[in-house]
Amino acid sequence: MRTFALLLALASLGHSQESFRSHAPTRPLPTAHKRPLAEGPSYFVDAAKGDDAGPGTEVAPWRTLAHGAAKLKPGDTLYLRGGTYYEHAMIQVQGTEARPITIRSYPGELAILDGGLREFYETPDKAWEPVEGGAPGEFRSTKTYPELAGSPEHSNVLGNFGDSMIPLMAYKFLGDLRSDNVYFNLKSNVGNEDHIYCGPGLWHDSKTHRIHVRLGHTKMKYLPDEDNYKGETDPRKLPLVVAGTKTPTLSIKKSRHLRIQDIVVRGSGGATVDVYQGVDIEFDGCTLYGGSTCIRVMECVGFRLIHTACRGLAAPWTFRGSLKYRAIESRLFSASGWAPSGQDQRDFELAYCEFTDSVDGVFVGSVKRLYFHHNLLDNVSDDGMFLTAATGYDGVTPGGEHYIYQNLFSRTLTVFAFGVGHGRQKGIVGGMQTGAGAYIYRNVFDFRRPVWYHQPRSPNEKQEVISTGRFASDHGGPTWEPMFIYHNTLIVDEVPRYTYASNGLGTAMGHGAKRRVFNNIVVQKEGLPGNFMPPTSTDFQADGNLLWSMGATKPGDDFFSKFRKSKAYEESKAKYAPGWGTNDVIADPRFTSFDRDWHKVVNLSLQEKSPAVDAGVTLPQEWPDPIRSRDAGKPDLGARPLNGAFWNVGVRGRLWMFGESEGGVSISVVENVPRRKIDYPEARTKPAPSVAIVEGYPAFDLPLLTFALRRNGAEVETLKHAWLEPKKYTDYKMVIVTGHLGRAKIEHAKFTADDLKLVEDYMKTGGTFVLTVSARESFATPEGKKFLAKITEGAGFVKTIKPQVVQNHAWVKHLDAGAFADVKNTPLHVRKSDVILGTPEGAAILAQSQVGKGRFIYIGWETHDALPYTRKTRPTPDEEARYEAQMQILLNLARP
Question: How far apart are CA 571 and CA 585, in angstroms?
């Protein structure tokens, strides 16, 4: 945001730049909203005057959010009176679709939920003392905080200036906090040998347990003057929001039909808000200040985030390398883990929100059906939206069918990013498996402003920031998700190489990627737009795009005349009848107003005589477009047709589609976002079966077993490198032991005679005990061997075999002859009738023995060995089929 526009925003909030002793905010601060009182039963909470022993009425409110939420029934509304609630609230409520539960601020008042340490905000004059022998301006806490101790080379405390909510650096190293060096000239990005001062910040001493702070001014010559810190340096004179614990400030677990409205959440070192296994959860009008993540949403159906600001950890002086390597690689919105979980997510809507100031932005690749519209995504120094839809361990790719439209993307290194992570993209005939893909349309991409990515390494380098944004890129060369890219306006500074139009539009077309690029406007600030087409063997189509360079093109240029005379052009007609680029236009788009300088307001609407008017190609009706009907005749190019309406982006539509406006363009407040009809899952009538997994090291099959159990609806508790006392087995329907317990340094790594008696009793009363091959050493005692021989009527572990299907059991009916060819295995000798996979003589790599009312199951190979590793070599369909046949066994038997 430009300086004068920021001053206007501050004035509208009742602030002046001089009223901030730290640094003037770069984003609007949250204010109270006058949403009317709701109908229906109402309850009240007041952090200053309430009492949890009271009735929760307006005159006798409760004191804590957690207590009040526990009392709510369908149709209830819980009002939070204005003020700060210092608590970590866990909410688990059950509304109905017709009668949702609402938790919100009282009209005209602002409730702030803060998981931080209140003394640094309320009494900073008493919370800090100077550090003798420290850096100039270094202070430390007067109290100790042993509960914050973590790894000595991790960020264990973070925060914000309390007046402006500008983030503080979460230092890993004391040397960085004390350094005067402002150049990224380190021998190692993550090492502690050399140091760099990254701006005002905090550090926790794991030995003394005190928090250190330094609010020294930044002297980065390569920054605009207004982006350096020049404020108060004495923390005793400033309120600070200080967060240490990684516990979410607000946790919402297993809730249904819940509305959270008009509150501020801050003060966590991890995910500030955590939503787990929710149905129809909505945040409306909230401001979320992130720890490592602003909000993490996992295993949810029907999640909505509207009119909400997610603010990350990047201050005006913070660069990607500083935050990623010297502090926390933060995200703003996380709905996709690196590994598939077994519980898929679907039907999300993120609208009229702001995602700003972070290393990474919005991770949504594995969400099925996402509507992302009218949002601002700005100042993200790495991945803006991560779209890879990871293939589950069962071969299913749930993600995709994303509708990304009418957003403003600016100052972002890579808006759409792709990577395999720790999940997998399945190898298929012709390439790699992807999700359902993304429709990207009617968006504005303004990459004029530099990205705080490359930080100068010495005073001899050019003292300015030169990194610029791009449309798309990847990590490690994975297959990109299908993209339908149409009616967008892109202002680009990065000079493209060997691609069509701009980086990301025609690149990475291998492994079966699918791309459609139509009716876009691409304007380069410098250099020529890309004039290279992908190979005609790829699933690519492009036409009706206008390309222009402000500094390297002139009327009459035609980058593609050579291509249109080539054999490749004729071959392209087999994929797209008119031929790639037949209707492309090389011309100045004649925007209403444009300036290369990012400080200047632009209006990227078309003038009446623009060559982009009526220059497009007709697109399939099934491609969504909210304003198609407003563009009569041939389609106009770019985000907004000549006679189309303007639209707003950001919280309640506070910005217009190009960012800021001048010249009398009115911006109307947006309040309501119509709900989409969603098929919500039925609530469980019975509790989910509970499973405990005792994890040794290594335990390669653990993720696969967990996935299989969760896919079948089980609740899974993993005891990482810890023993589970057999007397506690009765708390679970199934207990699995996997991985080498001794190598995990678990003190109690082998079953004793007393343990085994309890294990046997557990099975006799109906429990299921599962032993995997990697944990067999837990029975490597005389008592353990005798126990296995007793319950299986066998002779213990035997030599490797060539396994075969011995009985036509439901777990293995899908197998073909080659599923277990050359599989590494350690058989267990059992009674012949218990062998499922193995030999007719009783050597089993899959066995099930009845023990009273319960079962003993042995798995004598590791399915993980067959899992195709796709980042180095592309697996063949046969390899994928062999792995999935083995994985299906785990899915079949993982039914507690």
Answer: 21
Q: Is 285 helix (H, G, I), strand (E, B) or coil?
A: coil
Residues 17 and 27: their CA atoms lie apart, in Å, by 12
Other CB atoms within a 10 A radius of the CB of residue 677 amount to 6
Burial classification of residue 609, based on how many CB atoms lie within 10 Å of its CB (0-12 exposed, 13-18 middle, 19 or more buried): exposed
398, 346 Cβ separation under 8 angstroms: yes
Which residues, at least 6 apart from 436, have a Cβ–Cβ distance to it below 8 Å? Answer: 368, 389, 399, 400, 401, 402, 482
* Cis? peptide before 698, omega within 30° of 0: yes
Cβ-count burial 566-604 (b if 16+ within 10 Å, e if not): eeebeebeeebeebbbbbbbbbbbbbeebeeebeebbbb
Whole-angstrom distance, CA of residue 637 vs CA of residue 627:
13
**In the block, residue with structure tokens 């009446």:** 608
Identify the bridge partners of residue 796 per DSSP, sorted by sequence position: 829
Q: How far is CA 183 from CA 23, 136, 295, 460, 632, in A?
A: 22, 19, 32, 10, 55
**Three-state secondary-structure class, residue 178:** helix
CA dihedral 400, 403, 405, 411 (to 10 degrees): -20
**What is the C-alpha separation between 667 and 175, in angstroms, rounded?**
48
Whether this prediction's pTM lies above 0.85 is answered by yes
Give the span between the Cα atoms of 623 and 124, in whole angstroms: 56
Smallest CA-to-CA distance from 323 within 366, 358, 283, 361 is with 358
Cα(79)–Cα(81) distance, integer angstroms: 6
What's the confidence (pLDDT) of residue 341?
A: 83
Three-state secondary-structure class, residue 53: coil
For strands 256-261 and 345-351, give the pairing: unpaired
Residue 122 · residue 218 · CB < 8 Å: no
656 beta partners:
648, 659
Question: Pairing relation of β-strands 287-289 and 309-311?
Answer: parallel
Structure tokens at 711: 């896919």
- Residue 576, both tokens: 């797209």
Give me the count of residues in the chain: 896
CA 648 to mean position of chain CA atoms = 25
Longest pairwise C-alpha distance within the chain: 90
Closest by CA position to 495, among listed 473, 527, 522 = 527
- Average model confidence (pLDDT) for the chain? 93
**Measured distance CA(350)–CA(780) in Å, rounded:** 54
| Cα–Cα dist 774/741, whole Å | 9
Q: Which residues sit opposite 489 in a β-bridge?
A: 444, 521
The pLDDT of residue 256 is: 97
Separation CA 402–CA 593 (nearest Å): 32
Which candidate, 28, 22, 21, places its Cα nearest to that of 7?
A: 28
Could you give the CA distance from residue 508 to residue 473 in angstroms, rounded to a whole number? 8
Asked whether the beta carbons of 420 and 390 are under 8 A apart, the reply is yes
SS3 assignment, position 747: coil
pLDDT tens for each residue of 155-180? 999 999 999 999 999 999 999 999 99
Q: Express each pLDDT in 628-640 by its tens digit.
A: 999 989 999 999 9
4 phi/psi in degrees, rounded to 5: -65, -35
Which amino acid, 501?
A
Only one residue has tokens 């973590």, namely 150
Phi, psi of 263 (to 5 degrees): -120, 160
Gyration radius of the chain over CA positions? 30
Q: How many CB atoms lie within 10 A of CB 189?
A: 10
Query: In 313-456, at which residue ranges do the beta strands (DSSP E only) sit?
Result: 331-334, 345-351, 354-358, 362-363, 367-373, 376-386, 400-405, 408-419, 427-428, 431-432, 438-441, 444-446
Neighbours of 742 (CB within 10 A): 15
Tell me the pLDDT tens digit for each residue of 823-834: 999 999 999 999
Integer Cα distance of 140 and 148 in angstroms: 14
CB 412 within 8 A of CB 378: yes
Cis peptide before 877 (omega within 30 of 0): no
Measured CA to CA, the distance from residue 404 to residue 419 in angstroms comes to: 19
- Kindly state the tokens that stand for 875: 């697996």
